[in-house]
Design a protein that fits this description.
- This protein is α/β, with parallel strands linked by helices and about 550 residues long.
- The protein folds into three domains: about 180 residues, Alpha-D-Glucose-1,6-Bisphosphate, Chain A, domain 3; about 220 residues, Alpha-D-Glucose-1,6-Bisphosphate, Chain A, domain 3 (3-Layer(aba) Sandwich), CATH 3.40.120; about 130 residues, 2-Layer Sandwich (TATA-Binding Protein), CATH 3.30.310.
- The protein is about 35% helix and about 25% strand.
- A hairpin with a 3-residue loop joins β17 and β18.
- The structure holds 1-O-phosphono-alpha-D-glucopyranose and zinc ion.
- Zinc ion (ZN) binds next to loops.
Length: about 550
């Protein structure tokens, strides 16, 4: 085989986060750009000789081009086997599963998650390690360091292969297996859930609307929900992955999945509505006439998971990110299992899952998952809900009311203030941090502050410390406001304000969220001076 050695130069490698290196497509289309990043990854991972690499992406614009190049480069860098999803398609959780199932050294996942796609939009590459999870910080640090010194990249000199034909072909010294993108993942889901029971519920007339948002979950959802579980054709909406996601943001929230939300609140609503994002790791859950917040979803799934086949033995523990509501904590307490409060970001769950300390985990930002893979998993979350409903045979609304009657209800919302001047956002956080010690005892309307701190986390597995992970203001009675700056925004700074009001069992459980949060919203502004610092009187996005 002929290996090309292409001279190159250090580049704007910008430190990749756990979500990888996200850039505009136009940036990725520059000569050497994707190659430099991929070679930097290969240069820092040990054990490539003879190893397996998994490659796949969410199907967005530029996916196939980079996949062809990644195959040539992996072969030139010594990988013996390369497993690629058919058509270049793998959802993030499916890629995580393939890495684990086939003992791969790692995987390249091509995605910019819920960001829009197309020639003028976003692209991304991320590297996952052998446990199937995102590369830990020491690996991403090493990749970044390499981008600052890289001087050449390697590729086998060969034309592109047919990504659509299942089978094995040789590229240089490597055998490249094009595999069905869905089969292994669907088989895992059949291990975890009693498909017969869900199928019986569907046969009894239970209806589902799943919005794949023209993104990667289309083929997974069509195979699993329509073919294997017998939901009616048309159950999966926007089920064909499009390079530009049909010009939409493939972000399953109440803003971008509004059509689904409106359907679920209408008289024509099916029994269950759900959506997933660009790369298939997020989920949105809406019952007929009943939106379930991601925080509540985590708590409700945890409380009922033992009803699903794969979780009959019970849960070892629950983990939630700090800004996620404390609803899951009350479930953990009732089950007599630990509940871990981690910083924002999925990577903090990996250690707990690997160590067998937690089984199920979630974030308020629509990510839910379990120890079956090392990524959050949208289709899995929908299946766990369906498995529970198939067992209990009640509506989503009834399940929610039953849950609240037992545990109380955490009314919840997140207010985002986007594209703020960075200095103003930083000034707000600095002033609030300085004010924290004096807050306890102060009252804002009917609310009295019980405690306030800056959240830091000591990882119980490896002892590593993460400080400055968000400012928490806790009120008497269990209500809370959290302030933090987004780590993923692309324009200026984004301030996230997380509002949570706890109503105990027997309290006001059936009220409208905005009304229930009104006092907290005023208190949040008074405490942090949002309007004073930013000039904004309304959030840009409420989820
Ligand atoms: C956001 C979410 C966070 C999630 C991350 C990656 O990060 O809030 O929960 O893990 O995207 O999907 P943020 O922009 O808040 O830093
Ligand atoms: Zn995603």
């Amino acid at each position: 085989m002929t290996v090309l050695t292409v001279a190159t130069a250090p580049f704007d490698g910008q430190k990749p986060g756990t979500s990888g290196l996200r850039k505009k497509v136009k940036v990725y289309q520059q000569p050497n750009y994707a190659e430099n990043f991929i070679q930097s990854v290969f240069d820092v991972v040990d054990g490539k000789e003879g190893a397996l690499l998994v490659i796949g992406g969410d199907g967005r614009y530029h996916n196939r081009t980079v996949i062809q190049q990644a195959i040539r480069m992996a072969a030139a860098n010594g990988f013996a086997r390369i497993m690629v999803g058919q058509g270049g398609i793998l959802s993030t959780p499916a890629a995580s599963h393939l890495i684990r199932k086939y003992g791969a050294l790692g995987g390249l996942i091509l995605s910019a998650s819920h960001n829009p796609g197309g020639p003028d939009e976003d692209f991304g590459i991320k590297y996952n390690v052998s446990n199937g999870g995102p590369a830990p910080e020491k690996v991403t640090d090493a990749i970044y360091a390499r981008t600052q010194t890289i001087d050449h990249w390697l590729a086998v000199d060969t034309p592109g292969i047919d990504l659509d034909r299942i089978g094995t072909v040789q590229v240089g010294g490597a055998s490249v297996e094009i595999v069905d993108s869905v089969a292994d993942y669907a088989a895992l889901m059949e291990e975890l859930f009693d498909f017969g029971a869900i199928r019986a519920m569907a046969a009894d007339g239970f209806t589902l609307a799943f919005d794949a948002m023209s993104a990667v979950t289309g083929p997974y959802a069509t195979e699993i929900f329509e073919r294997r579980l017998g939901f009616a054709p048309g159950t999966v909406r926007n089920g064909t992955p499009l390079e530009d996601f049909g010009h939409h943001h493939p972000d399953p929230n109440l803003v971008h999945a509004k059509e689904l939300y409106d359907l679920m609140m209408s008289t024509d609503a099916p029994d269950f509505g759900a959506a997933s994002d660009g790369d298939g790791d997020r989920n949105l859950i809406i019952g007929k006439g009943r939106f379930i917040t991601p925080s509540d979803s985590l708590a409700m799934l945890a409380a009922n998971a033992h009803l699903a086949k794969g979780y009959r033995g019970g849960l070892k523990g629950i983990a939630r990110s700090m800004p996620t509501s404390a609803a899951a904590d009350r479930v953990a307490q009732a089950l007599g299992i630990p509940c871990f409060e981690t910083p924002t970001g999925w990577k903090f769950f990996g250690n707990l899952l690997d160590a067998g300390m937690a089984t199920i985990c979630g974030e308020e930002s629509a990510g839910t998952g379990s120890d079956h893979v090392r990524e959050k998993d949208g289709v899995w979350a929908v299946l766990l809900w369906l498995a529970i409903l198939a067992e209990r045979r009640i509506s989503v609304d009834a399940l929610a009311r039953d849950h609240w009657a037992r545990f109380g209800r955490n009314y919840y919302a997140r207010h985002d203030y986007e594209a703020l001047p960075t200095d103003k956002a930083n000034a707000l956080i600095a002033a609030l941090t300085a004010a924290l010690p004096a807050l306890p005892g102060q009252s804002f309307g009917p609310l009295t502050i019980a405690a306030a701190d800056s959240f830091s986390y000591a990882d119980p597995v490896d002892g590593s410390l993460s400080a400055n992970q968000g400012l928490r203001v806790l009120f008497e009675g269990g209500s809370r406001v959290v302030f933090r700056l987004s780590g993923t925004g692309t324009e200026g700074a984004t301030l996230r304000v997380y509002l949570e009001r706890y109503e105990p069992a027997g309290g006001a459980l059936d009220e409208e969220t905005p009304a229930m949060l009104a006092d907290l919203i005023s208190a949040a502004d008074a405490i942090a001076g949002i309007a004073r610092h930013t000039g904004r009187t309304e959030p840009d996005v409420v989820t």
